[in-house]
Amino acid sequence: MNERISDGSSCKFKSLYEKEFLSIAAGFAATAAGLGLTACNNATSSPSTPATEEKKSANTSYPVSFKLYDGDGNEFEAKFDKAPESVVTLTDSAAEILLRLGLGSKIIGTIKPDAPMPSDIADEYAKIKQLGDKKSLSREVVVAANPNLIVGRSRLFTSKDQTTPKDYADLGISVYTQLASSEQGDPTLAGIISDIKNLGSIFDVQSNADTYTADLQKRLDAINERVKAHEKDAKKTVLVMTNLKDGTFGLFGGSEKSLEFTIIDQLGATPATTQSANGLTYENLIKFNPDVIIYVTAERNKATDAAAKDTLLGESSLQNVPAIANKSIVEIPYSEYIDYSPRAFDSAEKILEVLYPQK
What we know:
The protein is an alpha/beta fold. It is 31% helix and 19% strand. The two termini are 36 Å apart.
């Protein structure tokens, strides 16, 4: 089913993703001395990572501030007077980025993962306390973990549910909303690079961030060059589907500015649809008539995902659909494609190979 969860009215134990929390008692006040976060309607510039002429990374000169966006699309300033000591991550990607920056010891809580972490960080990730499933984790549990900082996607921080960055600041907790998760931010592969650089600056580990992002930038440049070589080709359509079961399936949807769709656009293709849906049938798939299918897998659908590709390719009614006829199906884990992870670069490269197969 669609992983994008709609908002709703608040109640005491509402989930982060279904209800995005409610207000909490003032008894949880100020736990992060020295860290500041202020709601802001005026633009502030995110500091670039400085470097010497020898290309060595400079240390962070605090305070540092970043222009970010909450779930209502409002700009705010995230200001840090020193490196946070304790962090709760509300996306798999946030945990992955911090681990790769050498900050595993700072993470005091995270969500149950949508998919296994990469093998090189899986053991370290396994040591982090899981606070709950993203569909049922309450704000009370997150705040009770006593973090200095919460890192997550922008949609988790809204005025409707009294979970704006300012609401958390009143409790002494700073917020970093991932730029790649926000339509107003930078929901692109480049936005993921910006998030890594910003977090490197916040935690004063710019050297690690610079090394990591330099490799990602090279991969992004290579992707862009490959796409440019095919810019005169007819654009192919791509359908993002999930959870095939008993002849029905779901679609991931949202704004065309969502990361999963900006990736498709950056690869020189067009989404077959940006609408979300559940319970669609093969008849719907025939009408979409995609050139390429991105099939998004998830741990919760593991039992049926295993046979999904073979089921689609073997379905007699679909043989005239270009994606089926040409076996142009890419299976990608949710956390790799949609969760604002550096692994989105892996996804882009996989999709690229199907869009423009090398002869």
